[in-house]
Amino acid sequence: MNKPKMILFDYGQTLVAEERFDGVKGTSAVISHAVENKYNLTAAEVQKEAEAINKELKRFDPIMRAENTVEIPNHMFTKYLYESQGIKLDLSAEEIDRIFWDAASPGKPSDGIQEFLDYLWANNIRTAVLSNITYAGSVVEERINRLFPDNHFEFILATSEYLFRKPNPRIFKFALDKAGLAPEDVWYVGDNYACDVVGARNSGMFPVWYLGAVDFEQPDHDDVTKIHSWAELKEMIK
Prior knowledge:
The chain is α/β, with parallel strands linked by helices. 41% of the residues lie in helices and 18% in strands. It has 9 helices and 10 strands. The chain has a 6-stranded parallel β-sheet, with helices on both faces. It has a two-stranded antiparallel sheet with strand order 2-5. Strands 3-4 form a two-stranded antiparallel ribbon.
């Protein structure tokens, strides 16, 4: 384990603790902008179809999602979902993402993360973000920059823009290439063992399993460094 030259962060339940996902709330916010609802569908009915499609595609299941390492961006998903349900919207794809996400799962910085980011900046340890996420990259950047207005992230890499998802080593290598660093100089911190820990380790990075904001059950593992607070990770670096 080398002292890191950079720490790469996952987004959800790592940098940001999101509220429990409520798809009906998100869909309700979106279809309030409908200019046509051919079948007079409710938000609950539209969301039920969305969940059926997601299940078919193995999207979002905390355990199974690691088996699917190709990202399906939301602009493709929502275009099919709403048009196939006879719903026309007066929104761009990015606006759909933003409105849905803000209503379905608002978030706030995880406890202690801002102080930890300040410590890294003060100690010349670079930072960036690599997130498995289906929302448009511009929408992800907007949310992160709103929650962390003084951040020093060198890049915010949303897999919606780059085809591959964690744990595929291609997306980790891509992040390393953007950073211009060797894998042994980078630590990766995330909440999902299968995607974050395994993916980072297989890419040569030092993985850290952050459990301070996890909102789903995972099998325990003893083969990884675990932390429940950012203060723990600060002490490790010291």
